[in-house]
Amino acid sequence: MPTLVHTPRELRAACDAFRARGERVGLVPTMGALHEGHMSLVAAARNAGAQRVAVSIFVNPLQFAPTEDLAKYPRTLPEDLARCDAHRVDVVYVPSALDMYPPGFQTHVEVEQVTRVLEGATRPAHFRGVTTVVAKLFNAAGPCVAAFGQKDYQQWRTIERMVRDLDMPVNVLGCAIAREPDGLAMSSRNRYLNPDERARAVAIYAGISAANEAFGRGERAVGTLTTLASRPIAAAFDSIDYVAIADAADLTDRQVEAGEQAVMLVAARIGKTRLIDNARLGERLVIG
Ligand code: PAF
Questions:
Q1: pTM here?
Q2: Which residues does a 6 A CB cutoff place in the pocket of ligand 1?
Q3: Domains of the chain from N-terminus onward
Q4: pLDDT tens digit string along 184-222?
């Protein structure tokens, strides 16, 4: 079983002990409800040179708006620990909200431009919550490498920006999206879907694939590509928050023409669940 730690001090002591033996530490920050997508991040951290991997499990209240699903976010610690054990994770860090944000806490980390659009447009405090907790996790663990999934594309780009701007000595990996056999991007929130919603949810992948195939055939008009993606999603989902094409590096909006450095990003709602997905246009979408 991995070593279970609960406070920043305990996490630091565990990681320092590895470093004292000359072992490089990798960190995989999560909110739990772990699935194979998370485990691919553990593997990615190892492939990037971490001899020891710590996984943090913390449902971070700071990144949820009062109207969002903080209370009902899935909490599955026994299963998460078993999965970490099966994947030879060395340390699992499970702080309480009080360990993370003791009374008097008042310091936040905010990345400005890249957080204003897409997710940030409708969830104004979300990325400030993410960067604050990730900065704290980096400070406590001191990892050489940290792995994030590209499903949360804007989150990955935001964390990269934070690390660059604040000279944090950590190599941030953006790992390929892990998909179910039918293409649905793996997500802890997929557990919310009932069987009918789960069957319909694959439309998000169908939409992105349709746009990507058209891009492959030479289509560059943003209006055409977003219409192609939106059609199956609108038919299967209850509402679409956005279907957008943006610059893959800084997420500035592409309104007319999608160039080589373009990413398509989608957020849509099915029943009470909000799903996101994305793909770099021109890259093969990998399933399984
Ligand atoms: O992607 C997530 O699960 C969370 O946003 C993260 C990075 C663990 C921060 O709470």
A1: 0.97
A2: 29-31, 60, 63, 130, 133-134, 152, 155
A3: 3-175 (3.40.50.620), 188-280 (3.30.1300.10)
A4: 999 999 999 999 999 999 999 999 999 999 999 999 999
